[in-house]
Write a structure and sequence with these properties.
- By secondary structure, this protein is α/β, with parallel strands linked by helices.
- It has a single domain, classed as Spore Coat Polysaccharide Biosynthesis Protein SpsA, Chain A.
- Helices cover 27% and strands 26% of the residues.
- The chain contains seven helices and 13 strands.
- The protein has helices at 34-45, 59-74, 108-113, 134-143, 217-231, 242-251, 274-286, and strands spanning 5-9, 49-54, 80-85, 123-127, 130-131, 148-154, 165-173, 176-189, 192-195, 198-200, 205-213, 256-261, 266-267.
- The strands form two sheets. The chain has a five-stranded mixed β-barrel. The chain has a two-stranded antiparallel sheet with strand order 5-13.
Length: 299
């Protein structure tokens, strides 16, 4: 039985690129993609099961580019690979009408709910198209089994040179998460960062959707999703999102621990980010952080 599971949110890949799956394009000379680096760092940190959440319509491309290769690479290491499928039609019985007029699934909380039956151990959740750095995975692996947690990144380390980004700015007290403020259109400035003209502390911690959960979180999702559907103001657009779920749990008294890291995030938020991402991986390989043959140092 897996002791530490990594869930990778990949159902939304391609949605911001007019159907082109840019996140499945190589970022180094060996053709590795961003997900490869996350999986490498997770396995190195002690994770022993990987669950990909994808859509049925990208399954063939996804397996061809990474899934089959990852299974072959990780099998000798004793790391299990599994798939969950997020489907728009996956709603509780009697609530099927809520999906009428909707064109995409119900958000990240709904995506994790698709893992029901696949997860029996503490687990972490990440985005497919973000590079998180090694230390975040080490912190997550060490924390799993100790309740609810969030790996927090310095705002200054999570900005794009090519436009504004949305981040969950964390309110903390004595290492505990007390709230998350979703802040849109955060841009780099000469002094650090700002959103809608208001300066932000570049050292503040933000969520990059790197969560740590006990297996029982799936029960929380199963309880909460029907409530979300019943209360949705716009069922065609509203989303059941992990940060909103966490905020509700915080208000109800569930503690979350913040696991700070100074790792630098980067990812393909915009098409124009791709060259910078490729250059960042080139530097990491040149500095010896990773080998060109990425997985050769595992085992």
């Amino acid at each position: 039985m897996a002791l530490k599971t990594l869930v990778i949110l990949a159902a939304g890949i391609g949605s911001r690129f007019g159907g082109g799956i840019k996140q499945l394009e190589g970022v180094d000379d060996k053709g590795h993609i961003i997900i490869d680096y996350s999986i490498h760092d997770a396995v190195a940190a002690g994770f022993d099961k990987i669950v990909f959440i994808i859509r049925r319509d990208i399954e063939q491309d996804f397996r061809a580019v990474i899934g089959d290769r990852i299974e072959e690479t990780l099998r000798p290491l004793g790391v299990e690979v599994a798939y969950a499928f997020q489907e728009l039609s996956d709603v509780p019985a009697g609530m099927e009408s809520k999906a009428e007029g909707r064109t995409k699934p119900w958000g990240t909380g709904h995506a994790v709910l698709a893992c029901d039956g696949l997860i029996t151990s503490p687990f972490a959740v990440i985005n497919a198209d973000d590079y998180y750095g090694r230390n975040g995975f080490k912190a997550a692996a060490a924390f799993l089994g100790n309740g609810y947690g969030l790996v927090g990144y310095r705002l200054k380390n999570t900005l794009s040179d090519n436009g504004g980004v949305t981040r969950g700015v964390c309110d903390t007290e004595d290492g505990a998460l007390t709230g998350i403020r979703e802040t849109k259109n955060i841009v780099k400035t000469a002094d650090g960062a700002a959103a809608e003209g208001e300066a932000l502390d570049p050292e503040s911690l933000v969520s990059m959707n790197f969560w740590c959960y006990p297996a029982a979180f799936l029960d929380e999702l199963k309880r909460g999703f029907p409530v979300f559907l019943a209360e949705a103001e716009d069922a065609a657009k509203d989303e059941y999102l992990l940060p909103i779920i966490a905020d509700g749990m915080l208000k109800a008294g569930t503690p979350f621990t913040v696991l700070p890291t100074d790792d630098k995030w980067f990812g393909v938020t915009y098409k124009e980010d791709k060259p910078a991402v490729v250059e960042s991986f080139r530097k990491l390989i040149a500095e010896g952080v990773y080998r060109e043959d990425l997985y050769s140092d595992l085992g």
